[in-house]
UniProtKB/TrEMBL annotation:
The lineage of its organism: Bacteria, Bacillati, Actinomycetota, Rubrobacteria, Rubrobacterales. CDD domains: G1PDH (cd08175). GO terms for biological process: phospholipid biosynthetic process. This is Glycerol dehydrogenase-related enzyme. Transmembrane segments: none annotated. One of its GO terms (molecular function) is oxidoreductase activity, acting on CH-OH group of donors. SUPFAM superfamilies: Dehydroquinate synthase-like. It comes from the Bacteria. Gene3D superfamilies: 3.40.50.1970, Dehydroquinate synthase-like - alpha domain (1.20.1090.10). Keywords: Cytoplasm, Lipid biosynthesis, Lipid metabolism, Metal-binding, NAD, NADP, Oxidoreductase, Phospholipid biosynthesis, Phospholipid metabolism, Plasmid.
Length: 448
């Protein structure tokens, strides 16, 4: 692992000041806390399972290190803790009784609950990671179910993050696999940023790009070793996940680490896919299937020479906003998702003249852009192999979807974020539906 790389990234972070990732890191909890929260008291926050895994030790080290502590706040081990707003309200109610800094001991759900609760009680917090399961440890915002659907709530990233590699290696394999899938999704999200940059929609930030993409191939190179529990592979995974979060802080946007593959996941999460499982279907597993789906779409797109696109035909077929709004509303059955999809789709809608200008630019840049995309992307089949080797689901059926539902997701996911991705490119050129149809017809990627 490159501590130099992480320390360099911290220089551009807005919230996080310290990241410690090493074997035996739990022994340093008191020192890291004291350095980053001088004169403060601590309160350990965990669920019953994570408290047994690492919370008890964190509490012991804090006390022996001379840190004043409050009684730990421990959510029940069963049922599995879910990131819903009522759990934030419970924690906020407890935190309002003192001024201690929360030390969240857990992974994605617990971190998000503590992150938002700390924000609502106007204090920083620290995270002790227990699984390399997602890139949110060092990211701002918390993914929480509120008012009937998943949404990202405002809150800063932790001031300090500590991860003991021996604890991460011992975590449930599904959690490690989910983190791998989340990290591998940066392949397709990077491609989406290349597209947005080439078309003048959102220029690439060199530092934001470097923090995620420069080390990505190395971090995801050996899924077999990760599945076997090798510490070196775990070092790479947690470094990549932490760097992704720090990149979001530096760029003040998730564009550095999230593209169309996350739109697939966000749509499914908004509809409650896999929530009734125990444990619930992870964010990373949904991102993994989304990444394969998006990479397969890129392959169909790259099979076409868009330098020869009939721009006037595409502009002539382009619907008006009222027509788009009607179509967007028809794609969603949940009122909350429908409203959000209309809002997000309206934000990125362009009229005929602006579309013509964009597509003319596309014709000009396609020879260079297509070369960059081919160089950057991994084949969908290779992504599928890597995910399977890491222990991730790779088919829609494994996450509870039919092929028909997956096929419809391509157009539905387009509507839920204003971020420009390959879904928008295919839609604006008028080839989205035919490209997707090719993926599902006999001999197509999803028919194999």
């Amino acid at each position: 692992m490159s501590n130099e790389r992480i320390q360099s990234a911290l220089a551009g972070a807005t919230d996080t000041r310290a990241v410690v990732i090493e074997e035996g890191a739990l022994a340093r909890v008191a020192d890291v806390f004291r350095e980053n929260f001088p004169e403060s008291r601590a309160v350990v926050v965990a669920d019953g399972t994570e408290y047994r895994v690492a919370g008890e030790e964190v509490q012991r080290v804090l006390e022996q290190g001379g840190i004043g502590t409050e009684e730990p706040y421990v959510f029940p081990a069963e049922p599995t803790l879910y990131a819903k707003y009522s759990n934030i309200e419970l924690l906020v109610g407890s935190l309002e009784g003192h001024d201690a800094v929360p030390v969240a001991v857990g992974s994605g759900t617990l971190n998000d609950i503590a992150k938002r609760a700390a924000y609502e009680t106007d204090r920083p917090y620290m995270n002790v990671a227990t699984a390399a399961s997602m890139d949110g440890y060092t990211a701002f915002g918390a993914s929480i179910e509120k008012d009937g659907h998943k949404q990202t709530l405002t809150c800063p990233a932790p001031r300090a993050v500590l991860a003991d590699v021996s604890v991460l290696v011992a975590a449930p394999k599904d959690m490690t696999a989910a983190g791998y899938a989340d990290l591998l999704g940066k392949v397709t999200s990077g491609a989406d940023w290349l597209v947005a940059d080439a078309l003048g929609v959102e220029p690439i930030d060199k530092e934001g790009w470097r923090l995620v993409q420069d080390g990505l191939r190395g971090w995801v190179a050996d899924p077999e070793a990760l599945a076997a529990g090798e510490s070196e592979a775990m070092d790479g995974l947690i470094e990549g996940l932490v760097m992704s979060g720090l990149a979001m802080q530096a760029y003040q946007s998730s564009r550095t680490a999230s593209g169309a593959e996350h739109q697939f996941s966000h749509l499914w999460e908004g509809e409650g896919l896999g929530r009734d499982r125990n444990p619930p279907l992870s964010h990373g597993f949904k991102v993994g299937v989304g990444s394969v789906a998006v990479a397969a779409l890129y392959e169909r797109l790259l099979a076409r020479d868009l330098a020869r696109l009939d721009v006037e035909a595409a502009v002539s077929a382009w619907p008006s906003w009222p027509e788009v709004e009607e179509r967007v509303r028809a794609l969603h059955t949940l009122p909350e998702l429908e409203r959000a999809a209309v809002e997000q789709s309206r934000a990125k809608y362009v009229g005929a003249d602006a579309l013509r200008e964009r597509l003319e630019l596309l014709r000009e840049v396609w020879p260079e852009l297509s070369g960059k995309l081919r160089s950057h992307l991994l084949p969908a089949e290779e992504l599928r192999r890597m995910l399977r080797a890491a222990g991730c689901p790779v088919t829609p059926e494994e996450i509870g979807l039919s092929r028909d539902e997956l096929q419809k997701t391509y157009r539905r996911a387009l509507t839920i974020r204003s971020r420009y991705t390959v879904l928008d490119l295919a839609n604006e050129t008028g080839i989205l539906d035919e490209c997707v149809a090719e993926l599902f017809e006999p001999g197509g990627f999803w028919a194999r």
